[in-house]
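Design review, sub-item: ligand-bound model
Attendees: FS, YL, KQ
YL presented the inputs for the 4'-deoxy-4'-aminopyridoxal-5'-phosphate complex:
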Amino acid sequence: SFPAQVVPQAPEDPLFGLARAFKADTSPSKIDLGIGAYRDENAKPWVLPVVKKADEIIRNDPEANHEYLPIAGLTSLTSKAAELVLGAGAPAIAEGRVASVQTISGTGACHLGGLFLSRFYNPYGDASKKPTVYLSNPTWANHNQIFSNVGLPIAQYPYFDKKTKGLDFVGMKKALSDAPERSVILLHACAHNPTGVDPTPAQWREIAQIMAAKGHFPFFDTAYQGFASGDLDRDASAIRLFVELGFELVVAQSFAKNFGLYGERAGCFHYVSAPSSDAAAVTTRVASQLALLQRSEISNPPIYGAKVASIVLNDPALFAEWKENLRTMSGRIIDMRKALRSKLEELGTPGTWNHITDQIGMFSFTGLSESQVAKLREEFHVYMTKNGRISMAGLNTKNIDYFARAVDKVVR
Ligand code: PMP
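KQ shared the predicted structure:
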């Protein structure tokens, strides 16, 4: 009978399970390298100073209230969010080829995009034959469930080369070439999660060429713009390249990391149509369907994080300050990469460690094995996901020596 016989116990989310285990650990030397959230030099969450200013503005606004946002969200946010991704002077925006919807952070944007494609993207003229979504191997684990949940088949393309701890470019290109035409290809715009490995600009061009030849549909996930390199334009360059090349594509954009608004769930979904004489009309129709889907899912997106991000994006002085805050976060992480690599090299830890500084963004894929990861947790109270991914933001000048020595011991 329902539910006793048919509802099995679901496994705990591994990442949030790790966070729970860390919390319960009473060792003073414990280190949390699990969840991808920025931490300051004292291993504490960091409220961006520019976000504090925006919050102040909201709190002092006598007109502020808790009314519903429109279904598609706060337009002062979504319009600036599109500029952030595509560039302020992007022809796609000027030509009315962009439809933007505020979402429940990046997760909600991936979901809305998946739902939209599952409903309307019917490349084989047969609604029972859904296009496959190709995900990098590995990818952010949630991608698998998000796209499966909307009934899209998923497959993988090779991405990480275990030997070089860099990109398996040959494997990736082959998989994209072998995939059925007009497949959906999920691409991390920058700071690939979990590997920290991104294609070079020349490699992005080759990827775009293959995808154009195969008629593949690009689905960009951008969760780390400005957080990766400290430069908003540089971190958006892959998406802009595809748009310039004339692709029709979608973008799931998160403001969790680059604004430190994790729990406020601020993000956007963008549809960009290919240039054509009826592109603006197509885009208007897409926007109307996105609004309909949004209505049945969440009715209206949340207001607070949207207001914060909108205030910052629309004020030149605050925008400049935000860039400064982004450089603080990305700079500290880059410093930690350099420090970790040089400490491991100084210790003569077996293996090569250049990948620590070659990789970019929140995460490093260390190459540590599952048993080494288990040892680090049991003997040294260091918590990371079992695939050997570390959140670089969990390291600081106070714990990095301890961590490097622990790694050295488990590797030997
Ligand atoms: N995509 C990727 C690749 C991510 O790493 C994340 C954050 N872990 C997200 C999307 C979405 O996160 P959020 O829903 O918190 O914006």
